[in-house]
Amino acid sequence: MAVRPSDQLRMRQPLDKRTLLRAHPFFRDLDGAQIERLAQHATPRKVKKGAIIFRKGDVGSCLYAVTAGKIRIATSSEEGKDATFNLVTVGQIFGEIACLDGGERTASAVAIEDGEIIAIERRDFVQLVRDRPEVAVKLIEVLCSCLRRTSEQVEDIIFLDLQARLAKVLLQLHRQSDSSHKIRVTQREISQMIGVSRESANKQLRNWQRRKWLRLERGGLVILAPDALDGVISHRPEI
Q1: Could you tell me the pLDDT band of residue 31, with boundaries at 50, 70 and 90?
Q2: 166 in any annotated domain
Q3: Number of domains composing the chain
Q4: Which among 96, 122, 133, 136 has a CA at the least distance from the CA of 41?
Q5: Measured between alpha carbons, how far is 144 from 91 in angstroms, rounded to an integer?
Q6: Distance CA 194, CA 66 (A)
Q7: Are 109 and 64 in contact (CB under 8 A)?
Q8: Half-sphere exposure of residue 35, counting CA atoms within 13 Å on the CB side?
Q9: Is pTM beyond 0.90 here?
């Protein structure tokens, strides 16, 4: 039986923050001195499902790296509607915009499952960027990826219908899933990612479950026919 990431986290022995930094894709190419300097100011911490890392409007004093679990980047309207911009997984960073310019957080960050993150103070990370051009280049790549994703989300809302947007998000989450291939995300979170009601997303998910394209499970779903979902995006099949 597959072990869930949250169970793996509970079983894992606490790791030294230097080990965590060396294992993280964003920091692993740094030399020993740089790792040591960052480690002196880095704070690893475990987070429970539902924990708020920061809220929109908070002052951005830290950069965060995910070492276990998954973080939802989202915002809410005055009417109480939620929009999910991104799900940050193991090996990725978040909070980079406010960390760089020292301004307010542009969205909130919430843990959607038990996990572990590393917080690095802005003053230490900015100095690292100044000292190591390759880190600056890597950070530029991260920011460009965020900008591309935002542009793509806007295009999807304008040009794609509900089915195509839903299929696209499911395939993206499928590629990020662990060895169990289960997408650990709620239907509410999926609906927020594509800008529709939970009821509309649920109706389409159940339709695809009847076609055996996916299987709905407690706490998530499993994609069974990724090619069929890809066909929805390309408008090949009749749905």
Answers
A1: confident
A2: yes
A3: 2
A4: 122
A5: 17
A6: 24
A7: yes
A8: 17
A9: no
How long, in residues, is the chain?
239
Token couple for 127: 């100095």
Backbone angles phi, psi at 68, to 5 degrees: -160, 145
Residue where one domain finishes, among candidates 157, 172, 189 = 157
Q: What is the pLDDT of residues 60-103, one digit of tens each?
A: 889 999 999 999 999 988 777 888 888 999 999 999 999 988 89
- Pairing type for strands 93-94 and 82-88 reads unpaired
What b/e sequence results for 126-135 when a residue is b if at least 16 CB atoms lie within 10 Å of its CB, and e otherwise?
eebbeeeeeb
**CB under 8 Å to 91, separation ≥6 — which residues?**
24, 25, 26, 66
Measure the CA–CA gap between 204 and 206, rounded to whole angstroms. Answer: 5
Per the listing, tokens 């479950």 go with 209
Same domain, 130 and 219: no
